[in-house]
User: Fold this.
Amino acid sequence: MKEHAIKLSILNTLCDGHFHSGEGLGEQLGISRAAVSKHVKGIQSWGVDVFSVQGKGYKLAEPMQLLNQELLQSLVTAPLELIPVIDSTNQHLLDRINVLESGSVCLAEYQSKGRGRRGREWVSPFGCNLYLSMYWRLEAGMAGAMGLSLVVGVAIVEALEKLGIAGIKLKWPNDLYHHDKKLAGILVEMSGQAGSAAHLVIGMGMNLAMPSNTQGITQPWACLSDVAEQAVDRNQLAATLINTLQDALTDYEMTGMHGFVERWNRVDNYLGREIRLIMGNREVIGVSRGINEQGAVLIETSNGLETYIGGEISLRGI
Ligand code: ATP
Ligand code: BTN
Assistant:
């Protein structure tokens, strides 16, 4: 069997949320009970809450809906690859940029090296969130990349609204927030030369039902299951995000930021609120006034309206 295939097969059985005996699981897979127990430990190391009760077997704390490659592919036109266990979906696409079609997507259930901006870790437990990356060839070159990364945030908020999930906001440049807690993060990485097309990998991690005891996150975080009024279908959500993202990127290539500024500002988490911009050792304090057509953040300070742009800036509420 392929690497991880036994663990994935055990999870496929356990995902119904019922008890399954170690003996039964072992018989199903042609392995011993001891081997099942070893694999369950591996599954736990992916962040899955599996527990065992003597005489009953193993059970997930919560049922789990797994992503389904065939179903997903039938819902999107983008070429799509589901790799359940991966280092990073962004890295996977970056490594294959030369052979990929623009719009290609990679999804995973677990990332061992999920990353955020500036090399920070993106905590990526198995099966309870979304980890999605899309490759996009931007003919306009690197100059268009800043705008594009803001457009991604707008597209994701609008995709959630299409599914009836309201109240999700953006934090510049492109984090998704709910009630001042981080719901999702976007990481756009690029490879390309000045003057030619830019090759972008757009990665998004969104929390859906992450166990509340998840370790390693250094700021308040939110989950979509706490926001949505109805249960969220992970395949449906992933497909809607992919299709909406593709449409928004195509729109952006044709019309630029025009039209997106207003859409971004409509869902700005900090519009009219006091914020702090942190740039290395320097800080600017003022009232947030949204973004402009260049994708810069606007801040009203005691010196008047100032604009800031660049990857090394962090925005914080006060
Ligand atoms: P900025 O980039 O503006 O400084 P940020 O603090 O959100 O904002 P990022 O680099 O964008 O920083 O994201 C990494 C942050 O996200 C880290 O603080 C990390 O602890 C947190 N984080 C990691 N995994 C998750 C997750 N699954 N959900 C929410 N937050 C997470
Ligand atoms: C951030 O807020 O700093 C961005 C987080 C981006 C996480 C996603 S998950 C899918 C893709 N693969 C990665 O390694 N990172 C992005």
The chain is about 30% helix and 30% strand. The first helix runs from residue 5 to 14.
